Amino acid sequence: QVQLQESGPGLVKPSETLSLTCTVSGYSISSAYYWGWIRQPPGKGLEWIGNIYHSGNTFYNPSLKSRITISVDTSKNQFSLKLSSVTVADTAVYYCARVVATIAPYFDYWGQGTLVSVSS
Amino acid sequence: SSELTQDPAVSVALGQTVRITCQGDSLRSYYASWYQQKPGQAPVLVIYGKNNRPSGIPDRFSGSTSGNTASMTITGAQAEDEADYYCKSRDSSGNLMVFGGGTKLTVL
Fold first, then answer.
1. Which residues of B touch A101 (CB under 8 A)?
2. Distance from CA of B37 to the nearest CA of A (A)
3. Phi and psi at residue B23, in whole multiples of 5°?
4. Which residue, A15, A89, B29, B91, has fewest beta-carbon neighbours within 10 Å?
5. In what order do the strands lie in the sheet with A68-73?
């Protein structure tokens, strides 16, 4: 059974960098698939952040591209998200998920999500 | 603003059929996937591809596409189907991903 688990600080100060890690179990991240990040501000909808392949190939949401870095560590079976220069608008539940990269890609496994609040 | 448009809220009587729609130009080229999200929980994939359900998703859930509109139908809605539903597809460039704004389904 594939499982994903997000981890990282629950509170980040404005202008600082948000850093989250997704640990994958039950599947080798280096085998195949893309791996993605999605976020959801409180009371709002889902927003795609970006995806990464085990080779390091990335795709980012243009609205966030200048501030985000997604990386992968196959030795730890993890992938990570860094979001710089955060503001209160970046307060959200952050999810990691596995991407089935077909012509119509979809997220088949999701982490439980982790709430990150941006506040001084 | 989202490139995929969903009605914010839809209601259905218990046991009746409901269709939740998602509009966007990219849907002329790419199928949508659909996600169910209950309060405090992570989204769950319910429909992907032309009309496929992951293991464990009841067969009362189905999907279809016509032109620029993707639809997810629940035939015989149950109380446990009350949730937010999101469509997702590629963006108009075909390179990136985008979610619809979500539809809150109420089962009466």
1. none
2. 10
3. -115, 140
4. A89
5. A3-7, A18-25, A78-83, A68-73
* Residues paired with A70 in a beta bridge: A81
The residue with tokens 């990219």 is B26
Of B70, B76, B75, nearest to B103 (Cα)? B70
Query: In this predicted model, what pLDDT tens digit does every residue of B31-68 receive, in sequence order?
Result: 999 999 999 999 999 999 999 999 999 999 999 999 99
Which tokens is A115 given?
């709430």
DSSP letter, residue A24:
E
Instruction: Please state the three-class secondary structure of B19-79 as a single string.
Output: EEEEECHHHHCCCCEEEEECCCCCCEEEEECCCECCCCCCCCEEEEEECCEEEEEEECCCH
Q: Where are the alpha helices (DSSP H) in A1-120?
A: none
Amino acid at position B44, single letter: V
| Chain B residues with CB within 8 Å of chain A CB | 2, 30-33, 35, 37, 42-45, 48-49, 54, 86, 88-90, 95-102
**Contact assessment for residue A117 and residue A11, using Cβ atoms and an 8 Å cutoff:** yes
Do β-strands A114-118 and A92-100 pair in parallel, antiparallel, or remain unpaired? Answer: antiparallel
Please name the residue that has the structure tokens 């990691």: A96
